[in-house]
Amino acid sequence: MRHSAILKRQDRIATRSGARHEPGRQAQLRRLAVLYTAPVVLLLLVLIAYPLLRVVWECVRYVNLVNPTVRGFAGLDNFRTVLQDDDFLPALRNTMIWTALSVAGEYVLGLASALALARNVPGRGIFRALIIVPWVIPIVVAGLTWSWMLTPEYGILNHWLVQLGIIRQPIAWLGQPSTALFTVTLVNIWRSFPFYTISLLAALQAVPRELHEAAAVDGAGTLMRFRVITMPHIRTVSLTLILIHVIWTAINFDFIWVMTQGGPLDASETLPIMIYRYAMQQFDVGAACALASMMMGFMASIVFVQYYAARARRPA
């Protein structure tokens, strides 16, 4: 009994001592957390926060790269310059077509390839490794390679299409206003769909196999199982992929610039190309920042709408 009382007394002393030292440990952990995250926070402030604030500041000011006397508060003049530009509406239309077709094609092709790779077929591991190759190729390399392959003079694709009898003579796919934007879009789909494939494949592997087996026993066909079981399980991943790629594709500059530079006759010019022309060709940084701010606000609104829609669907 005496030994038990001594042990209880020691436990009470240890508990009081731990309670006294707990605030000190928590403060130390907070200091360590601040110390470890400080470099990342500083990097984000320098590389992201400062440029964004600079864009917002300069969108309401007159800024010219070659004429330092052009300066001062502009108010909404830069926005009026953009909206009254004859190239704005065509560029906006091209951006919407480029984004919608790219994201839709990437998702459909990515889902189809993910469903195929989810099956137990011979050589599945090799195909899973090869499918990612287009996505890891640098955009400049992919764009230049496809530009060479599509040239009417020596492009291998034109040669194959003529040999197969699909076309009568080589076509300047990137040199015609009617085909330039759609050609670049198809090449972008080819390069980007593997990201969908890998992401959707991971989501498909998390779908319980027992659900498919039980549904098959109950007489549900392949399409019914896909609609009722597979799609609900990959909905979150699908919506996230689509949201991310809508933003990535809409603000994409380098792929179109490498292949067509927005031509011919501005047939493939999108809003990012227009921002580049304002800043680096017309040297009107104020107008470029105004258009960039408009795009940034639109992208932020998409994120907020998707976030609050997801919260509304979430069960209480």
General description of the model:
It is a multi-pass membrane protein. InterPro entries: MetI-like (IPR000515), MetI-like_sf (IPR035906). Keywords: Cell membrane, Membrane, Transmembrane, Transmembrane helix, Transport. The chain crosses the membrane at residues 33-53, 96-117, 129-151, 171-190, 234-258, 285-310. Belongs to the binding-protein-dependent transport system permease family. With 316 residues, the chain is mainly α. It folds into two domains: 2-58, no CATH class; 88-268, MetI-like (MetI-like fold). Helix content is 75%, strand content 2%. Strands 1-2 form a two-stranded antiparallel ribbon. The radius of gyration is 28 Å and the shape is globular.
**What is the 3D form?**
globular
Largest sheet: 2 strands, antiparallel
Question: In the residues, how many domains can be counted?
Answer: 2
Number of helices: 13
The helix-and-strand class reads: mainly alpha
CATH class of the largest domain: Mainly Alpha
Helix share of residues? over 70%
Walk across the major sheet and give the strand order.
Answer: 1-2
Average pLDDT value?
86
Oligomeric form: single chain
Do you know the CATH topology of the largest domain? MetI-like fold
CATH-derived architecture of the largest domain = Orthogonal Bundle
Distance between the termini: 53 Å
**What percentage of the residues does DSSP assign to strands (E)?**
under 5%
CATH superfamily of the largest domain: MetI-like
How many β-strand runs? 2
Uncertain spans: none
Element string (H = helix, E = strand): HEEHHHHHHHHHHHH
| Alpha-carbon Rg, integer | 28 Å
Subcellular location: Cell membrane
Keywords: Cell membrane, Membrane, Transmembrane, Transmembrane helix, Transport
Membrane topology: Multi-pass membrane protein
Pfam families: BPD_transp_1
